[in-house]
Amino acid sequence: MEESYLALGREILTKGHEKTDRTGTGTKSLFGYQMRFDLSKGFPLLTTKRVPFSLVKSELLWFLKGDTNIKYLIENNNHIWDEWAFERYVKSEDYKGPDMTDFGRRCLVDDAFNEVYQKETTLFIENILHDDEFAKKYGELGNIYGSQWRRWKTSTGDTIDQLRDVIDMIRTTPDSRRLIVSAWNPEDVPSMALPPCHTLFQFYVADGKLSCQLYQRSADVFLGVPFNIASYALLTHLIAHETNLEVGEFVHTLGDAHLYSNHIEQMTEQLSRKQRELPTLWLNKEKQSVFDFDMDDIKIEGYQPHPSIKAPIAV
Fold it and tell me: Is the sign of the CA dihedral 92, 21, 8, 265 positive or negative?
């Protein structure tokens, strides 16, 4: 199954179009690509580099809670959303520290600035953890995934719990073609720290198996996509468990699939490595609802990947 991902990396390196992007980093990009993963053959956590599963599951649990504040993530030693919240803070009137303009790029090319940046982000994280008012104001990322999944706003001021509704539909009308959860709400896009990259997912039930297809508008192939694959595979397992179904396929459809220019060497290194046996997923079967699971209720077993490959995130 991992070959589907590696084939994507190879194709971008050989056929990708040179494009500019919002971050100013530059990418090699393809448009419209699909990967398929048979979840009955192993859990698709990449083995050609280590993917930290603890971050995958804490982020997904964060989404499932409907949470949009990074405090929960930081409490679980997950810092993958820190930069987005920090960017909002340093652009606010309350920030009085050193100039942080274009910090994502500058910290990579200026060692002196990086020292200042690290001090400011450490202080920011401490404030999120220990100052409730600060966390409420600057840990908040807007109406991102968790909000759209669990509290979609209607014109009447009510909210829709899309995820709970789709789970009920899987139970009662499994052949429905409307088993869909959308994170892309045009009204909320301007207020989001990062408009949803994984915009819509749909479930499909056949032969007692639950499959899921994700449409992802923007796909950071080296850093983001391995997380996305594991996250939606885990989501499919959790919902299959709650609805008494086996797992089928995870189908990953990508819009703009890109490698950042400063990820080319890392992708090339990963492609040189041999695949290893995929791990398996363990779930605490005493928990029934996806909304009841905690970190200790989800584990990965038999994971023996190659070492991690570090790469900068483009903010």
Answer: negative
DSSP secondary structure letters along 37-75:
EEGGG-----SSS---HHHHHHHHHHHHTT--BTHHHHH
Q: Which domain holds residue 201?
A: 1-65+161-315
Is 219 assigned to a binding site?
A: yes
Residue 27 has phi, psi (to 5 degrees) of -140, 165
Q: With 0.85 as the threshold, say if the pTM is over it.
A: yes
Active site residue 107: no
Residue of 8, 45, 144, 197 marked catalytic: 197
The CATH number of whichever domain residue 201 belongs to comes to 3.30.572.10
Return d(Cα 180, Cα 159) in angstroms, integer. 16
Which two three-digit tokens encode residue 130?
């220990």
What pLDDT score does 192 carry? 76
Query: What is the per-residue pLDDT across 264-308, written as a single tens digit (0 to 9) for each?
Result: 999 999 999 999 999 999 999 999 999 999 999 999 999 999 999
Task: Check whether 258 is labelled as a binding-site residue.
Answer: yes
Residues 259, 312: one domain?
Answer: yes
pLDDT at 1: 85
Tokens at residue 166, please?
């789709």
Neighbouring C-beta atoms of residue 304, cutoff 10 Å: 9
Question: Do 152 and 160 touch, CB atoms closer than 8 A?
Answer: yes
Q: In terms of domains, do 194 and 269 share one?
A: yes
194 and 47 housed in the same domain: yes
Count of domains for the chain:
2
259 is in an annotated binding site: yes
Q: Which amino acid is at 306?
A: H
Report the C-alpha gap between 185 and 161 in whole angstroms. 14
Mean local confidence (pLDDT), 48-70? 97
Q: Is residue 228 a known part of a binding site?
A: yes
Q: Report the distance separating Cα 241 and Cα 245, nearest Å.
A: 6
- Inform me whether the pLDDT recorded for 194 exceeds 80: no
